[in-house]
Design a protein that fits this description.
19 helices, 21% strand, alpha/beta, six-stranded antiparallel β-sheet, 28% helix
């Protein structure tokens, strides 16, 4: 013990000396080794031990040099001690403390740093002092990635494949039920966790890629450690961690990289409006106003149209924006500048850390709209190639169009949101394919809906879809009619916009959202105990293989057709429930004819000569059949055909 004390004394004396002074001293070799150990190794262990005892959380956990925004806010948290009186200092080239911020809760301390341009990556020693106590917290600054296949964005050349991870495939049974988590796997319960995970998705990327989609959108994968079911992922309890029952942060990054290596993009589902009521920021909140509070539980009225309503009442607007989404989903107050910065940095952190290509933002109109505009602007300023689409669950085109960037709004609002989800078009398809033709019904609904695209600053940037996790399955909506099923897919994948397909649509999965777990069923074959494996053709029914093969052929064709990605859309007023439209790019023209009748129909094409001009032949894009004379075209009952004009 005396020897160690002597050595520690030696180390203290020579701590500030360089390595050569130690090497050239007259100490014995053994003594030199031990002193060097104390100087260079022991402080690391001590710092880590002190860090863990003084801070339970530090967020962001690390950051990057080279960011366009040079400001960095770091949250320090200790759940059992007062850290508000800690003084902090930094001695690192290019990094300075602009402000230390204390809040109502003494368990928190915020530091606002300036990370100047040109700062080198490395470990920042943040010195903390409280009375006689001093210690160092080592905070890492990494180099910002410049890899070419990361953070690519997405556009109308892409087709997204939406996956609910808990219901897709269980690749790792070891993470099904874990200590410290309220819910384990109960596959027999419709609202319970079923065990799907990131490895399950990773194991089936061959299947996803072979289908012909180009991007994967996964429902939220962050921690949802809730007492009440939260398999869906929308009651987040840690914004910096993947839920361990799905996997780890590292596994998520590996999945993104694996997708990129296959030419697949990754869209991350995020939530800004609310968090889970078991989130540590709720259980021990920094300030009362981080969460919207009411004398008693107050649910949102869910009427997002009130935001753009020129006649709205203040109370309606307040309940829409501040009311809780559900009992277990407290509403976040983004007007709090500390929380606002926390949320923006969290988004930037995931983009840079995981290399994702886009974000789908849940319940876009529900948070503070000025915050959301600032959020979108800062994300796109930092990553210009990135893309974002927002969920605006309203069946009114004017209400949806309000939220897209550069919209002409009476109140002058600029959202900076590139893309919105086109619910009105989805509803037009689901109604129009199930009605007899009329002035305003049947396929006229599709035409009429598209005539209103002047509402959108860029309708081609809209995300289009036939169904998702929050509505009845498409095949169910089509009355399980295969002809209607195919017609809708042809329309979705040839009209303007960025299409999304919900997992299992290719397998004719169906369900009525009135019992919403039925639209979120497990994919047969994703669990080792399954008797049927739908991921392989031998495990699918004849009808399922017909649907899968049809979708694959359509997607493979679309993938190589810039005329569908970027081409001008021109359509003609439907007559007798026949809807005709064209996509045009350069000299290439694609003609789509939809017949919504129960009988075969013959149409004369002279009416369309302003587009067809000197084109005399047409090749069926899906069958390869060439029509030598396209003056008159026969279209089978309840079907759509795609013709590449020649």
């Amino acid at each position: 013990m005396n020897l160690f004390n002597d050595l520690a004394s030696d180390a203290k004396v020579i701590f500030d000396l360089n390595f050569n002074l130690i090497k050239n001293s007259h100490m014995t070799s053994a003594r030199k080794f031990i002193v060097l150990f104390i100087i260079f190794v022991h402080p690391v262990f001590t710092s880590q031990a002190q860090t863990k005892s003084d801070f339970d959380r530090v967020e962001p956990t690390f950051w990057w040099v080279g960011m366009k925004n040079t400001e960095l806010q770091i949250l320090f948290y200790n759940n059992h001690a007062d850290i508000s009186n800690y003084e902090a200092s930094i001695n690192y080239p290019g990094v300075s403390i602009k402000e230390k911020i204390n809040v109502e809760n003494p368990h928190y301390l915020f530091l606002n740093l300036e990370v100047s341009r040109g700062t080198k990556a490395g470990t920042i020693p943040i010195q903390f002092k409280s009375g006689k106590k001093t210690f160092t917290y080592s905070y890492e600054l990494k180099n910002k990635s410049i890899a070419g296949n990361r953070i690519q964005g997405f556009n109308s050349s892409d087709v997204m494949y939406l996956i609910m991870p808990d219901r897709f495939a269980n690749g790792d049974v070891k993470n099904d039920t874990l200590p410290g988590f309220y819910e384990g796997v109960h596959r027999e319960k419709p609202f319970g966790r079923h065990g799907g995970d990131l490895k399950g998705i990773s194991d089936h990327l061959d299947y996803i890629q072979d289908l012909g989609v180009t991007a994967v959108w996964i429902n939220p994968i962050l921690e949802n450690n809730q007492k009440r079911e939260s398999y869906h992922g929308y009651a987040i309890t840690d914004l910096y961690k993947v839920d361990k029952r799905f996997g780890s942060n590292e596994e998520y990054v590996a999945l993104v990289e694996k997708c990129h290596a296959r030419g697949l993009k990754m869209i991350q589902d995020m939530v800004m409006n609310h968090i889970g009521n078991q989130h540590w920021l709720v259980l021990d909140s920094p300030e009362k106003n981080w969460i919207h509070q009411f004398p008693e539980f107050t649910r949102s009225n869910y009427r997002s149209e009130v935001i753009s309503d020129p006649y709205h009442s203040s109370i309606d607007l307040k309940i829409m924006n501040d009311g809780w989404f559900d009992y277990t989903m407290p509403d976040v107050d983004q007007s709090n500048p500390l929380f606002a910065r926390y949320l923006i940095q969290n988004t930037l952190w995931w983009i840079e850390y995981a290399g994702i290509d886009g974000i789908r933002m849940d319940t876009y109109p529900y948070p503070d709209k000025d915050f959301m505009a600032r959020w979108a602007q800062q994300v796109l300023d930092e990553y210009p190639k990135f893309n974002i689409f927002g969920e605006v669950l309203v069946n009114l085109k004017t209400m949806v169009g309000y939220w897209q960037q550069n919209g002409i709004n009476k109140d002058g609002y600029q959202s900076h949101l590139p893309s919105v989800i086109d619910y009105p078009l989805t509803n037009a398809v689901n109604l129009g394919l199930n009605e007899q033709g009329a002035w305003d019904k049947g396929l006229a609904r599709l035409y009429t809906m598209l005539t209103q695209d002047f509402i959108y600053p860029d309708a081609y940037a809209n995300v289009t879809f036939l169904d998702n996790h929050d509505m009845p399955r498409y095949f169910y909506n089509m009355g399980r009619d295969m002809n209607k099923f195919k017609m809708g897919l042809i329309f979705l994948l040839t009209t303007r916009g960025i299409p999304e397909l919900y997992y299992g649509t290719e397998l004719l999965m169906d369900g009525d959202y009135s019992i919403h777990p039925t639209v979120r069923r497990d994919v047969p074959g994703g669990w080792k105990e399954d008797q049927v494996n739908s991921f392989v053709s031998s495990g699918r029914t004849k009808e399922q293989n017909e649907a899968y093969d049809f979708m694959k052929k359509l997607l493979d064709w679309r993938k190589i057709k810039p005329v569908i990605h970027q081409g001008k859309l021109m359509h003609f007023i439907p007559e007798e429930n026949i809807y005709v439209y064209f996509r045009m790019l350069g000299g290439e023209i694609v003609m789509v004819i939809m017949n919504g009748n129960t009988t075969e129909t013959t149409i004369a094409t002279k009416r369309f000569e302003e587009v067809m001009k000197d084109k005399t032949k047409g090749k069926n894009a899906l069958t390869g059949e060439v029509l030598q004379d396209i003056g008159v075209i026969k279209v089978p009952a309840m079907s759509a055909i795609i013709l590449e004009l020649e």
